[in-house]
């Protein structure tokens, strides 16, 4: 074993991919996750018998639990993925976003600072708090604006991005004011295995396989910058290992696509993979629906700092990453069934009026 990391939100999409990666690197992992609708223990079933993986169900906003985990397991780093993460849900019901993303992060910071101050000098010097955030804090770009850099002013537009911006500011302040060795990463849209199918790519994929409508908001021309989740996780490991405390690192795929392009690409790939499906051509399932209120038009991330200073490069192209993603969802039918529980179906019914 080579050190312990306290991961929060490790049963979610990106967190679980990160936990699996860090176990391969022989880190001991303590995973604190509240298991909201987005947390799924099946994401980490392969670690069930692993003595160096410890799962704890609980809230980052519970100071006594967080304090006890820090004291008991003595981690060398805290990596904070725990969040409410879906923009549409934040529009329907912002409160849990304020509670977990802002208040929860504040409480986690407070406990971590207390722990950090109790560490002996050598270990304190190596300790890191890594806060995983989003490019959405920078707001929306016009068609010919340059991509977001780490110096782009924050201009969040949704309750989700506003709550993430609030948490980023608190993390920054805990570094600046109290000396907590914190780092922030702001990443673009992720896709890949284990993503809850309320987000565009898995929602489209699973609906298409079942011959259900593929909802595209507005005119379908909003642009996102897509990154395969394992490339994100590799960047996080690098930032933990070599990043400079107090620094922010943008992470992105340099892969801008309109939503309609994404949906059409998925349809064409499924036509090839399943030519015998009664739903071919899958593109006939595309349905334009009412736009999301306040829908950001374009995101694009300039990640040259990460490339220049830490030597990171994305390994997957959009084509290879999407191929891996489709295969994963087609092979993991038990996982797919498990997320199609009552809670998921209720959300789909409320959101799309089915
Ligand atoms: P997710 O919704 O799949 O997972 C979030 C996890 O946090 C779930 O397991 C959930 O149970 C847990 N959680 C929620 N509230 C909690 C609480 N109070 N205490 C403990 N655990 C709690 O999210 P994700 O897509 O994996 O995103 C992880 C992080 O990365 C988030 O902070 C998000 O803002 C950020 N991010 C996501 C993307 C993306 O494209 N998905 C891109 C950039 C940044
Ligand atoms: P999403 O996956 O929710 O990520 P985010 O809003 O955080 O970028 O959405 C990605 C894009 O896809 C966004 O522009 C909204 C759009 N979208 C649809 O067109 N239809 C859908 O059903 C969903 C969930 C998203």
Written account of the structure:
- This protein is α/β, with parallel strands linked by helices and 354 residues long.
- The chain has a domain at 4-194 and 227-254 and 299-315: Rossmann fold (3-Layer(aba) Sandwich), CATH 3.40.50.
- Helices cover 45% and strands 16% of the residues.
- It is built from 13 helices and twelve strands.
- It has helices spanning 13-24, 63-73, 87-92, 95-118, 121-126, 159-178, 200-210, 229-242, 259-273, 304-310, 318-331, 333-339, 342-352, and strands spanning 4-8, 28-33, 53-57, 77-80, 128-134, 182-187, 189-191, 214-217, 223-228, 248-251, 256-258, 286-289.
- The strands form three sheets. A seven-stranded parallel sheet has the order 3-2-1-4-5-6-10, sandwiched between helices. It has a three-stranded mixed sheet with strand order 7-9-11.
- Strand 5, helix 6 and strand 6 form a beta-alpha-beta unit.
- Helix 1 packs across helix 8 (229-242), helix 2 runs parallel beside helix 4 and helix 7 packs parallel to helix 9.
- The N and C termini lie far apart (49 Å).
- The mean pLDDT is 97.
- Bound molecules: nicotinamide-adenine-dinucleotide and thymidine-5'-diphosphate.
- The site of thymidine-5'-diphosphate has 12 residues, from helix 7 and strand 8.
């Amino acid at each position: 074993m080579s050190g312990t990391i306290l991961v929060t939100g490790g049963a979610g999409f990106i967190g679980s991919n990160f936990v699996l990666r860090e176990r391969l690197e022989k880190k001991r992992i303590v995973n604190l996750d509240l298991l909201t609708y987005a947390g799924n223990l099946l994401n980490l079933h392969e670690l069930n018998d692993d003595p160096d993986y410890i799962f704890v169900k609980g809230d980052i906003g519970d100071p006594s639990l967080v304090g006890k985990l820090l004291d008991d397991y003595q981690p060398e780093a805290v990596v904070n993925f725990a969040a409410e993460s879906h923009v549409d849900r934040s529009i329907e019901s912002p409160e849990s976003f304020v509670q977990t993303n802002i208040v929860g992060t504040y409480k986690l910071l407070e406990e971590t600072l207390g722990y950090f101050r109790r560490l002996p000098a050598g270990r304190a010097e190596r300790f890191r708090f890594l806060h995983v955030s989003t490019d959405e804090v920078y707001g929306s770009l016009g068609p010919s604006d340059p991509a977001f850099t780490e110096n782009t002013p924050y201009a969040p537009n949704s309750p989700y991005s506003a709550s993430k911006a609030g948490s980023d500011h608190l993390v920054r302040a805990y570094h600046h004011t109290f000396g907590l060795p914190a780092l922030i990463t702001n990443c673009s849209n992720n896709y890949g295995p284990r993503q809850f199918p309320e987000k565009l790519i898995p929602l489209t994929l699973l609906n298409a396989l079942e011959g259900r409508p593929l909802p595209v908001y507005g005119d379908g021309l909003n642009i996102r910058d897509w990154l395969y989740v394992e490339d994100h996780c590799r960047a996080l490991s690098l930032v933990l290992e070599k990043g400079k405390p107090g620094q922010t690192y943008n992470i992105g795929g340099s892969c801008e696509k309109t939503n309609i392009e994404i949906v059409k690409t998925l349809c064409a790939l499924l036509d090839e993979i399943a030519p015998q499906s009664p739903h071919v051509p899958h593109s006939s399932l595309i349905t334009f629906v009412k736009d999301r209120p306040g829908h950001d038009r374009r995101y694009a991330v300039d990640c040259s700092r990460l490339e220049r200073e830490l030597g990171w490069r994305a390994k997957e192209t959009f084509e290879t990453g999407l191929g891996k993603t489709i295969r994963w969802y087609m092979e993991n039918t038990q996982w797919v069934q498990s997320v199609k529980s009552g809670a998921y179906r209720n959300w789909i019914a409320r959101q799309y009026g089915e």
